[in-house]
Each structure stands twice: as structure tokens, then as C-alpha cells.
Write a structure and sequence with these properties.
alpha/beta; Rossmann fold; Arc Repressor Mutant, subunit A; 3 domains; 5-stranded parallel sheet; 3-stranded antiparallel sheet
């Protein structure tokens, strides 16, 4: 069939043509936006799940809902060993810009811009030193002087509270709110994660119309709880998982139907068996199957013909790129995890079992395990165990 008309989109964070299986989350967030804008108490939100389940797509969809309600929004992607002060300043600047042009009091807007500038300029010595080694320091592009004595103490939690309070009040004047969307939230250093939680806690107690929506790997809720004991009650936690059969079928069938194409039932059976309903795989296999099919009724033979090509593309881009980032010691560690996981579907395995499999002492494997966690290849499902962050990764390693 015509590849130009192919509706499937297996891209990183790229919204598929049919966002199947996320209706409940989208409906709940509409309620959250309405409640917050009307001064009702509501919690911020955290999305967690494996890679490839559509967390970033859902995060962007939630931001789109806020934009359609005329909220001020900003988004950041956290990175390991990088302070969040400047990224948050940039996100807040984007949110302020979205509401400022509708505000009737330019002096009030300038006052908030001055607080934002003071917050951005108060970078730690380590951040300034990193900037001098080739990084980038950022100052809000506004022609107002930085405020003194507001959001510039150097204490991140206190500064965030003051910044969030002023920005939320600006949006409240317009009957809307501010939403900050944080991807890869698990990569925020623990002290700064605690500061962000503390600021969210204070803002929620004030009833200010500002929410934070974070997305990250499955251990993100544990990291949040470790940063602040009340984080379990501070956020509404949403586990983003693979699609049930009905929703996976919808993701394949609806975009195809708009192009006059249908699937025979056996083809859908085979597609679900191959993908397990993981959204990235749903799009990847759907795209290759479309390109292989000759007729407007996609058959199980088309799926089976497309499967090796889809697997080859995943082996290079989705799996291989991650495997190549690992050191030899880290690859040995992952291979042991894959061997141990063969019997129980690549569920979490005990670190002690990995050590026994490699005939090593557990302590000697700590650097490899910690390196894999830092690179986002594995996560600690619970104390004393590890699991892959990428679905089907164990299967890929065993095939190698």
C-alpha cells in the first residue's frame, strides 16, 4: 500500500493518530484543570511506567488540554546531574509569556518577570562553573531589572515557593492556572526533587492555581517518597501500562479505517501477540505491516512477513542504541538479568541472583548496577531487585 498514506507513528514522544487507552486519564485531568482554576483543592500528578508505554505522549496531551483552556504552561526534561533551576526558569518564562499578553496590568506582569529573572540568575557555583566549561547560562529575555529579596535566596525550595506563588497569582487574575510538565522526572537529583515537592506542598496549601505534572520510570514514586515523606499524598499517581487488547485493536483499526483499510481478525491476533500491547511496538509493527501489505485488507500473512523487518528496526533503534551505551561490565550484568528472566517473562530479578549467575560478590557488581540505573536501562523495582526499563529488552539480549 501507499507508504505516504501510512498513518502509524513510531516516534519518541510522537503522538499516534489514535491515542487509545488513555481516555480515563484525559477526562480526569479535565476535572483537575477545572477544579484548580476555580480554587478547589487538587493534587498534582505523576505518570510512571516503562519506556515505550507512551508517558511522554500522554504528558504532551495533558499539556495540550491546559493550553486549550488558556492556561500558562511550560515543559522541561530533567537530566542526570543537572540542576533544575534554569530549566524551571525557562518553563515558567514560557508559562508567563502565554498569559502575560492578556493581562491588563503591565506593571504587575513586569513585577513577576523581575522575580523570574532573580530566580534564574541565582545559580549555584557548580552550575556557573559548568557553564564556563561550555554550558549555557540563561537569563529571561525581559527588559526589567531582577527583583531583590524575592526568589533569590539560593535555597531552591524557598525560591520555588516564592516564584510559584507570584506566577500563580498572575494567572489567577485571568481565571486560569499554570501547569509545569516535567519529563524524565526520576533524573532530578534527590535534594532538588525534595525542594520541588516542598514547593508543591506549600502551593497546594495556599490553594494557588499551579500544578506540576511529572512523568518518569516505574521507580519515580519511590524516589518521590524518599525525597519527602508526604509525597505519597501530594501527587495523584497514574501507572501508564501497555494497552489491553481492545485498545490496541482501536489503535490499529481506526487510523487504517480513515484510509479505507481494514484488518482481518487473525492479523490483529498476531499483532497483539508480537507487541503485547506496548504502545511503541503497536505503532512500529503497524507501520511496517502497512508498508508490506498489498491489499486494503491486511492479513495475518502480511503481519508475519512484516515481523522480521519490524524486529530488525527495533533491534537497531529501540534496543540497540540503548545496549550500545552500556560498558562491557554493564552488558554482562544485563545479560545475566536476561538469562535469569527467561523463565518468568523478564520480571524483576534479585541482585543476589545476578551475582551468583556471574560468580561474583554482590558488592563488586554495584558500580555496574548503579551505572545502568543512572543510564535509565534498569531500575530498582524494590529493595534487592532490578528490572529492565524497556519492555522485551531481555528477549532482545537473549536473541543476541
Amino acid at each position: 500500500m501507499d507508504p505516504i498514506r501510512n498513518p502509524y507513528a513510531p516516534g519518541a514522544g510522537q503522538r499516534p493518530p489514535e491515542l487509545a487507552g488513555r481516555d480515563r486519564e484525559l477526562e480526569q485531568f479535565e476535572v483537575t484543570l477545572e477544579r484548580v482554576a476555580n480554587g478547589r483543592p487538587e493534587r498534582s500528578m505523576v505518570l510512571s511506567g516503562l519506556r515505550g508505554v507512551g508517558k511522554t505522549v500522554l504528558l504532551n496531551a495533558l499539556r495540550g488540554q491546559a493550553v486549550r483552556r488558556a492556561w500558562g504552561t511550560g515543559k522541561i526534561e530533567a537530566r542526570p546531574d543537572q540542576s533544575i533551576r534554569i530549566p524551571i526558569a525557562q518553563a515558567v518564562h514560557a508559562a508567563v509569556r502565554e498569559v502575560a499578553h492578556r493581562h491588563r496590568d503591565p506593571d504587575r506582569v513586569d513585577a513577576v518577570a523581575g522575580v523570574l529573572k532573580s530566580f534564574a540568575l541565582k545559580t549555584a557555583f557548580e552550575d556557573r562553573r559548568a557553564a564556563s566549561r561550555g554550558g549555557t547560562r540563561w537569563t529571561p529575555p525581559v527588559d526589567v531589572p531582577a527583583s531583590r529579596g524575592r526568589a533569590d535566596s539560593g535555597d531552591l525550595e524557598l525560591d520555588l515557593v516564592e516564584l510559584f506563588t507570584d506566577v500563580a497569582a498572575l494567572a489567577q487574575d485571568l481565571g486560569v492556572g499554570v501547569g509545569l510538565f516535567v519529563d524524565e522526572m526520576q533524573d532530578i537529583p534527590l535534594p532538588e526533587l525534595a525542594a520541588l515537592c516542598g514547593a508543591c506542598h506549600e502551593i497546594s496549601q495556599q490553594g494557588a492555581p499551579l500544578i506540576v505534572v511529572g512523568a518518569g520510570l516505574p521507580h519515580l514514586p519511590v524516589a518521590l517518597a524518599a525525597s519527602k515523606s508526604y509525597a505519597e499524598r501530594l501527587f495523584r499517581y497514574v501507572s501508564v501500562d501497555r494497552l489491553p487488547r481492545e485498545m490496541a485493536d482501536r489503535a490499529w483499526r481506526r487510523p487504517a479505517a480513515e484510509e479505507g483499510v481494514a484488518f482481518e481478525p487473525a492479523a490483529l491476533d498476531e499483532l497483539y501477540r508480537l507487541t503485547d500491547g506496548y504502545p511503541y511496538f503497536v505503532q512500529a509493527y503497524g507501520k511496517v505491516t502497512w508498508d508490506v501489505a498489498l491489499e486494503s485488507l491486511i492479513t495475518v500473512a502480511d503481519v508475519r512477513m512484516a515481523a522480521p523487518e519490524a524486529e530488525a528496526e527495533l533491534a537497531v533503534g529501540f534496543f540497540g542504541a540503548r545496549f550500545d551505551r552500556a560498558t562491557p561490565a554493564e552488558r554482562d550484568y544485563m545479560s545475566a538479568m536476561a538469562d535469569l528472566g527467561a523463565e518468568h517473562g523478564d520480571a524483576a530479578v534479585a541482585t543476589a541472583d545476578v551475582a551468583r549467575h556471574l560468580s561474583r560478590k554482590p558488592q563488586s557488581l554495584s558500580p555496574a548496577r548503579d551505572g545502568l540505573i543512572k543510564k535509565g536501562l534498569v531500575y530498582s523495582a524494590e529493595r534487592g531487585s532490578v528490572a529492565f526499563t524497556v519492555p522485551h529488552f531481555g528477549k532482545f539480549l537473549r536473541a543476541r
